[in-house]
Please model this.
Amino acid sequence: MLKNRLLKDTIPGFLIVLTAIFLLNSCNTAAKKKEASTITEIQNVPKPATKAKLPPYLAEGKKVYRQVCLTCHQANGGGVPGLNPPLIKTDYVLGDKNTLLEIIIKGSEAQLEGNKSEYANVMQGYGMLGDEEIANVASYIRNSFGNKAEPITASEVAAYRSANKK
Ligand code: HEC
Model:
């Protein structure tokens, strides 16, 4: 008898506690769901463009650079001490267009005029590249690695070539 009384008294109390726990818990999940949806809302806000996309001709120039020039002059244009010069803010890169085109088309020895290079490597001429490719890669190095100089166009490359035919 006593045992039965005890059960009768405790069960309702127990149920109340259970319900309370259940309610609290569901409130909590609702709050979490709300929180989650706010997070997705925040994530859906478009990020401000931190890095402007390269215009197509510079993107093309980057491709040529990666395929042809990167092994020596490195991805950051820093070169390799004693082997290949950096392409960062140098007169050859930023200066006269035809001088730069001469280096790219005829190779690095073209500008040395008999002086001994301080770099162990020799850069061959890349005259086999098309006007567009040369213009793009020249423009790319003139506008990368912190450089800023007027791009070179394919018709400027064509003009250089026809003026410097042997
Ligand atoms: C085999 C390695 C090699 C490759 C590949 C190469 N270069 Fe060079 N480059 C050199 C070396 C070495 C010199 C330095 C020549 C010197 O001063 O004696 C040089 C010099 C230059 C210079 C003059 C740098 C300065 O301001 O002193 C430019 C510009 C240049 N390279 C651009 C390019 C471009 C663009 C490409 C790809 C189309 C390229 N190079 C590919 C090795 C390389």
Summary: The chain has a mean pLDDT of 83.
